[in-house]
Amino acid sequence: GDSVTQMEGPVTLSEEAFLTINCTYTATGYPSLFWYVQYPGEGLQLLLKATKADDKGSNKGFEATYRKETTSFHLEKGSVQVSDSAVYFCALIQGAQKLVFGQGTRLTINP
Amino acid sequence: DVKVTQSSRYLVKRTGEKVFLECVQDMDHENMFWYRQDPGLGLRLIYFSYDVKMKEKGDIPEGYSVSREKKERFSLILESASTNQTSMYLCASSLGRQGAGEKLFFGSGTQLSVL
Q1: How confident is the model at residue B41 (pLDDT cuts 50, 70, 90)?
Q2: Is B30 in contact with B97 (CB distance < 8 Å)?
Q3: What confidence score (pLDDT) does residue B100 get?
Q4: What is the pLDDT at residue B19?
Q5: Is A89 in contact with B43 (Cβ distance < 8 A)?
Q6: For residue A103, what is the DSSP state?
Q7: Phi and psi torsions of A83, nearest 5°
Q8: Chain A stretch 36-75, residues whose beta carbon is closer than 8 A to a beta carbon of chain B
Q9: What distance lies between CA A47 and its chain's CA centroid?
Q10: Helix, strand or coil for residue B115?
Q11: Run of H or E including B33
Q12: Which of A82, B33, B75, B101 is spaced 20 to 30 A from B46 at the CA atom?
């Protein structure tokens, strides 16, 4: 079945560092891809999405490009802030099926 | 903005108890979902519902049941709680069926401990 694999966490960076969180997927067709973020004590919220190959999703300085040839959707940010500390989930959906989530990557940004 | 409210933030129950987790959304969404979140496993879908009185099994329905008597409310029931059901439970809702680009709105979660 469809699956999502994220890089192992936790990830710890200093403020203003460059961030990459890797995400790869396995799917038989052409899924839509998402990044959700969970701040401490809160539920998940949609960060960005891409619905077809070569689309770039972006929000709050974060970006991710849908790469069909490498089945990847890596999350990047050029300069992280302490407020970006959270757990990040990559997810996919195909057709009318349910969302499939990766295992989550905990990010901690130190001042 | 959409609000998804889960009745309890923390819950402690004993093995064998019947447990009810309640979720209410205020935006007339058709679809509601229950996930559990465990470290290293991400989110796993327990049950979902596309309409009132309708329910479908997710990936890990064993040991759980659900009830959707009203559109805005979706309850998760642990018939006889066990220690392996200790977890964070997340409720979510969405406007239409989960298709391309459909966005889920999540509650803050209920951390359930079964002793």
Answers
A1: confident
A2: yes
A3: 42
A4: 97
A5: yes
A6: -
A7: -70, -10
A8: 36, 41-46, 49, 51
A9: 8
A10: coil
A11: strand B31-38
A12: B101
